[in-house]
Amino acid sequence: MSYLSEYKSKLKTAEDAVKIVKNGDNVEYGLGVSIPYLMDRALAARKEELNDIKVRSMFSLRPIEIVERDPQRETFTFSVWQMSGIDRKYHSKGLCNYLPGVYRYIPEYYRRYLNVDVVMIAVSAMDSEGYFSLSYINSAQKAIIDKAKYVIVEINENLKWVNGGFDDKVHISEVDCIVEGPNIPVDIIPNPVPSEIDNRIAENIMPYIEDGANIQLGIGGMPNAIGRMIAQSDLKNLGMHTEMICDSYVDMHEAGKLTNKFNRVGNGKGVWTVALGTQRLYDWVADNPELVSYPVDYVNSPGVISNNDKMTCIVNCISLDLFGQFSSESVGTKQISGTGGQIDFMEGAFESKGGIGIIALSSTRIGRDGSLQSRIIPTIQPGEIISTPRSLAFHVATEYGVVNLAGKSTWERAEDIISIAHPDFRDNLIKQAEEMNIWRRSNRLR
């Protein structure tokens, strides 16, 4: 049978395709732009027929129909590995659960522990050899597909082919059912405009970036500020090894800074596992021979990351305490995002020759009552998740400077951390540190 004939034999409507789902099934939806919205709508329409359907997903970019049509969670239980703004709203209403986990381990969680009855995932159009590209989302997709008892792909021709290393595509022989989707536009994440504080933090970080460095950036105003500053700098021959590609890399590429000359992992190509951003970013990633996509257990492996010299990893956090513990995913018990690959890249950067890991945060935030609040606090508040433990705390950056906590005692850490806190809160932090017996009188802050 030719690939085209096999394609036609497996082609169904979304309504027919989701009939495979039965009571008690575990269903997978994919991540971000790979979430199959046509099949989600068809599955939601079966709400009255089904019971106890568990759906796992990650980073929703549009409303999820099984959640919208089942606000009492009578049929569907929706859970995510990483939260978007939409998922956060669902979670605050009790309509979504969070799946804790280190990002690089997620593929292995599926291989070892998790049951997958049906996977539904959006992919590119099929090529002449019978392959569908996983396109902008590699992540843990192939591990989930390999574990699933039944595989449904939803075709979206706006999901373009990408240059992949391995586990970046699925063959028609592995697919049980094909649904031709409406080819909806790929969801974009607007490129945030850096704030004045973002720019000041970026200015403090810039001296730590060297020629030939391999760069990992997160998403948000501060990483975008760094990308723009790099693009306008004298730096040269930078490489890309990142969990997620953001628009900052396009800025660096267009300015001639991103050559990947010293990227050993990608053999001279930029390495990534997820692309989320603007259409400009997607156009750059599509079929780009200078980039290569790998699954997250490869990209985020500290052993792989460290193969690149001068690995420079810059990530964000929500709050930091005086012991050097970072919370990057919750405020108290309120889940904000997810663990992601912060630990992965802090370890990998430390093991890299000439590498450096920097966790950045603004020193303050505006509270709900309009008051100025410090992000640097005496101790992580009860229920708040510690994303990076103090044992993996290295460089920390705020708009007031950069300090290195590695190898420091508790009193030295407290002193360094307070030195980059907002001046209005330093005296109280010193008092708290004294009460916790992690302060030694010195001349540095008095």
Secondary-structure topology with pairs:
Layout: H1 3-10, E1 11-12, H2 14-17, E2 26-31, H3 37-44, E3 53-58, H4 65-68, E4 76-80, H5 85-92, E5 97-98, H6 106-112, E6 118-123, E7 131-133, H7 141-147, E8 150-155, E9 169-171, E10 177-180, H8 196-205, E11 214-217, H9 221-231, E12 239-240, E13 244-245, H10 247-254, E14 270-272, E15 274-275, H11 279-285, E16 291-293, H12 296-299, H13 302-305, E17 311-316, E18 319-321, E19 326-327, E20 330-331, E21 334-335, H14 342-351, E22 356-360, E23 364-366, E24 372-374, E25 376-377, E26 395-398, E27 401-404, H15 410-419, H16 423-435
Parallel strand pairs: 1-10, 2-3, 2-6, 3-4, 4-5, 6-8, 8-10, 11-12, 11-17, 13-15, 14-16, 17-22, 18-25, 22-26
Antiparallel strand pairs: 7-9, 18-19, 20-21, 23-24, 26-27
Helix pairs in contact: 6-7, 8-9, 9-10, 15-16
Task: Characterise this structure.
The protein is globular, with a radius of gyration of 23 Å. It has 2 domains: 3-180, 3-Layer(aba) Sandwich (Glutaconate Coenzyme A-transferase); 196-435, Glutaconate Coenzyme A-transferase, CATH 3.40.1080. Helix content is 28%, strand content 21%. Helix 8 (196-205) packs across helix 9 (221-231) and helix 9 packs parallel to helix 10. Strand 11 (214-217), helix 9 (221-231) and strand 12 (239-240) form a beta-alpha-beta unit. The longest helix has 13 residues, at 423-435. The model has no long low-confidence stretch (mean pLDDT 94). Strands 1-10-8-6-2-3-4-5 form an 8-stranded parallel sheet, sandwiched between helices. A 6-stranded mixed sheet has the order 12-11-17-22-26-27, with helices on both faces. The protein is α/β, with parallel strands linked by helices and 446 residues long. The chain is built from 16 helices and 27 strands.
